[in-house]
Structures are given as C-alpha cells and as structure tokens.
Amino acid sequence: MAPGRIVNISGTTPVDDPEYRYKMPSVFGKIEGRGNGIKTVIPNITDVAFSLHRSPAEVSKFFGCELGAQTKYIEDTDRAIVNGAHTDSVLQNLVHIYVQGFVLCPNCNLPETKYKIKGGCIFHNCAACGAKDMLDMSHKLCTFILAQDKKDKEKKKKDKKKGKEESKGTDKTAEDKEKEKKKKKKDKDKEKKKDGSDDDKKKKKDKKKKEKKEKKKKEEILEEFDELAVDDEVGVDDAAAMDLAVKGIRKYMEEHIDATPSDVSEMVVNQQMASALKSHDKMQIFARAVITPQFYKEKEIEKFSPFFDEIIQENRIMQRHLISVLELLCVEKNKNFPVMIKQFFDEEVLEEDVILEWAFDGRTEYTFNSIDEGTRSSLRAEAEPVIVWLQESDDESSDEE
Question: With contact defined as beta carbons under 8 Å apart, do 43 and 79 qualify?
Fold first, then answer.
C-alpha cells in the first residue's frame, strides 16, 4: 500500500465498495534513530485522525496501548512518535482495529459517531442511525479519553472566562471617552457639594457618637441602679432571680411598645412565678424595670401609672410595697423620694391614707432589711413637705364639710 493513499474507512472487516463515501488516508511511518533510541515517526497522523473525526493525540495513544510502547504527539510539529520500529502494514492494521472499537457505530457500522461521556462512561452517539452504545471501558485508551475530555472542558471554561473578560475590556475601551466625561462631570458636582456634605457628614457622625455615648452612659447608670436596688434580705439565688426578672420585663417593654397594662401585668406575674419569688415582689420587678434615675425628665411615672394601677388593683398592701420599693430606689438620692411619692399620688396610684399611714404608723414589716432606721428617718424627713401638704388638704376638706 502506497504511503498516504486514500482508502475506505473500515474496521477489521474490509469495505471493498469503490463508491463508499467514507474515506481516509492510509497511515505511514518513518523509522528514525538506532539501538535503544529507535522510533517511528508518523507524519500524517493529523490527516488520519481528522478523517475519523478523532484527535491525533488519541490515535497516537492507541498505537502505544496496542504496541506496549511509549508514544508522543507533538502539536507544534504535527507529528506522532512511537518508540520502536514499526512497519506501515502494522500501523494500518492497528488503525483498522481502532476504527472498529472507537469509530464505527455498532448498530449501523458507519463512521458517524461522536463520544458522549456520562457518569464516567463513554458512549457512541451515532448521527446516522441515532444509536447510543457504550464503548469497551476495559480498554486502556478509555482512561486517556476521559482525561482528555476533562482537560478540554477545563480549557474551554477558561477560554470562555477569558473571552468574557476581553469582551468586557473591549466594550470598556469603546465607552471610555463617554464614561470619562460622565466621571469628570460627577467629580465636579461632588466637589461643589463636598464642602456642604462634609459638614453634614461630620454633624451626623458627631450626633451618632454622642447618642452612642449617652446610650452607654444610660446603660452604666441602669446597671449601677440595679445593683443599688438589690436588697440584703434575699439570698444570692433570689437576688439573681430578681435581676433576671427585672431584665426580662425591661426587654419585654422595649419590644412590645403597644402592650396593654393587662398584658404587662400578666407578664410581670409570669416572671415573678417563674423566678420563684414572693407575690408582692412583682411590684419591685416592675418598678425597677421602668423607673430609672431619669424618671422625672422622661416622665416615667406619668407614662407607666396605668400599668402600676393594673398590678396594684387598689390593694392597700401592694401600695405599701410600692412605697417600700421607692425607698429602696432612693437610698442614694433621698431627694428623689418625695418627688416620686407626689407623682404617684397625683397619678392616683398611691392613696392619701396609705401615704399618711406609712408616715405615722411606725410599722416596719414592709421595709427592706437593707434600709436601716436612720435611712428610713432620712427618707421620711425628705417626704415631710408632701406629708404636711396632704394633712393640710385633708383638714381643709374636713372644714368644708
């Protein structure tokens, strides 16, 4: 067979039909070197492979698999090299074996197949008859085909990404002038607004900083306030339970700004019971949760008086417990005590009789152990103007009768 002569594409069974339209050039090789360095160079490997719609590297690798020799396909010089000396007839027979197993459709026997790789398996996908048949996956060449397919996919993915970047770069270049004009215009506008906006930003920043500082200060005051309000008569566990209950109500009030007095009262009772505290402790829980050192400025007593009413339920004993809690909250700032008493009276949370009873009966069962007689006397002295005022108003009302 003459080197490079056009022949019918056939497998192990020859096709003698002269009108057969599937053709390929016959393969031929050139032996080079000597001794251990002898090799066979196949100059027309690309023509053979392309006529079979396969890659030159794949056909070269098949020769190596069948001959047990090392092979190499050099893309730049378009040559395949197979170690050892091999005649043209041996190479051509191998091409027919390759065509039989990797090119011809098992169904219609025509060389119109393409590989379809799925789940690590290689299938013949025939364009002539539509058949799909799996290759002999035990052949060593299948490993090469799978590896090559993976490499091609990665290369294609990389090229696609590179193409997108280049396309983006080209578009960018085309629009550069227009963008530069717009950018310059924006920069000018920004420069004009900069003086005013910088001042606004600074003001906003300072305001935010101030608010943050005030919030932190308020939290510190509340923490200190909570510590002062813990009574010595309760144990460590009860004090911790009380503290958790207070924080629970405080959080509830922050998250439920539209809560009704009834809802809040129910929540206070739940916290008191869950913390295993006494019934009257619910007054301390709620008072500590909503009354802060800024009570007068924030109008807290006026704001929360309906909630106190709901918890007290006109119960005189609960009113006495409220006065005791106010004593506890005002230990450090005695001057706050008469103001609180007066505000609770004005809001009709504390009754006149209960306040006067506290002032004159001398009973101490409602007073917290942490408040000694000296502190209690001091608080009563601070509240004396309110007591006198209540007595006088009471006398006036008696005279009118």
Answer: yes
Residue 367 or residue 109, greater confidence: 109
- 6-148 belongs to CATH 3.30.30.170: yes
Q: What is the DSSP string of 12-23?
A: SS----TT---E
Which long-range contacts does 121-127 make (Cβ < 8 Å, 24+ apart)? 122/146
Bridge partners for 71 per DSSP: 82
CATH for the stretch 229-400: 1.25.40.180
The helix (H) or strand (E) run that includes residue 47 is helix 45-51
User: Phi and psi for 103 in degrees, rounded to 5?
Assistant: -125, -50
User: Is pLDDT at 153 greater than 70 in this prediction?
Assistant: yes
Task: Note every long-range contact of 141-147, with CB atoms under 8 Å and residues 24 or more positions apart, other chains counting.
Answer: 141/58, 141/61, 141/62, 141/65, 141/102, 144/58, 144/61, 144/65, 145/58, 145/115, 145/117, 146/117, 146/120, 146/122
Tokens describing residue 361: 């009966």
